[in-house]
Design brief:
- With 396 residues, the chain is of the alpha/beta class.
- The protein has two domains: 248 residues, 3-Layer(aba) Sandwich (Aspartate Aminotransferase, domain 2), CATH 3.40.640; 128 residues, Aspartate Aminotransferase, domain 1.
- Helix content is 34%, strand content 14%.
- The protein contains twelve helices and twelve strands.
- The chain has a seven-stranded mixed β-sheet with strand order 1-7-6-5-4-2-3, with helices on both faces. It has a five-stranded mixed β-sheet with strand order 8-9-12-11-10, covered by helices on one side.
- Helix 4 links the parallel strand 2 and strand 3.
- The chain is globular.
- Bound molecules: pyridoxal-5'-phosphate.
Amino acid sequence: MTPDTTPPEDTGAEAADATRVVRAGLPAPEPYEPALPGPAFAAHYHLPGDVTAAPYDYGRDANPTWTRLEAALAELESPGVPAEAVAFASGMAAITAVLMAVPAPPPDGAPRGHVVLPADGYNLVPGGLRTLLEEHGSEVRAAPTAGDAQAALLDGARLLWLETPSNPGLDVCDIRRLAAAAHAAGALVAVDNTLPTPLGQRPLELGADLSVASGTKALTGHGDVLLGYAVTRDPALARRLRTWRKTAGAIPGPMEAWLAHRSLATLELRTARQAANALAVAEALRATPGVRDVRHPGLPSDPAHALAARQMRGGRYGCVVAFTLPDRAAAERFLGAARLVDEATSFGGVRTTAERRGRWGGDAVPEGFVRFSAGVEDTADLVADLREALAYALAR
Ligand SMILES: *Cc1c(COP(=O)(O)O)cnc(C)c1O
């Protein structure tokens, strides 16, 4: 009898996150080739004869560096169940693609239905993108994330857009419940998964049709790349998104795609430390008189915690903490005094950052509202720095 030498097939479904992230999307090992091949800088490829089956023809259509990153993202968002990822130039490029191109208009010219947005989502979505959608003939309605308020707007909708936890308010909605209600109303469901990353939340497993994210934040985590993606298990939706990307030209650069893929290997380490730091910071803030409205979904006392604990994964509630100091001056003193906290926008980086959101004018927040993004520094160092800066900021 000859022994069975066929290696067991790896579906990737059982691996733990830390194991999955270091190999996601890598090609099969080839002697004398790198584990993660470098970026393919190509506007065009050698393209003989018949082009119909060519995997790579022109650089706006496809690129092998994107292909590998997309395989990794699909594996992280949907382990064990086939899915397709489409990478974009930025989070907004991915979000715009979904809101403009999904779903396909009904063939019989029937009304297309309206889009339901979170009123408190990432400010460009209920802001500039809503305006753009309306200018192009879409009807848009919006309700807050908290309390699943968007459920009341689903009658006649074509697409429900969720963002949970919401940025910057950190409210949480029930993806499973809202997805079921949207599907019953005939609408597709997309979730902005930027803040949790696929390690903190898997919207497709909770019933969403699309998980969409900015890769600029915690996914890549070094504050040096802009990137976005959408993942779906529906090949027809993925096809529409690829057609949109090629037509709008909203493509990621090969270097960015490669940097993003390289960063995934540390995603588990980074998000675990960031989540632990964010929780320690939130607890220290809550214990400080003069600090109001501390929000972090990992805080047991947070109004969103019970729901977040049910639908988020691995105790990973993200790196963002929101809180309010008495006024603008106190917030500015805090940001100026904290030595381990860079004053910067965005979030999810390895270095702790924070900003007074009111300086942009786009979010409905008090003047002393601070959005804080915990990095991967030592927890005790970070909390000590926070306490000192708070003492200084609140002293007068
Ligand atoms: C930053 C962000 C976006 C936009 O992503 P870009 O990569 O900056 O275009 C979208 N959604 C959320 C929740 C974000 O935080």
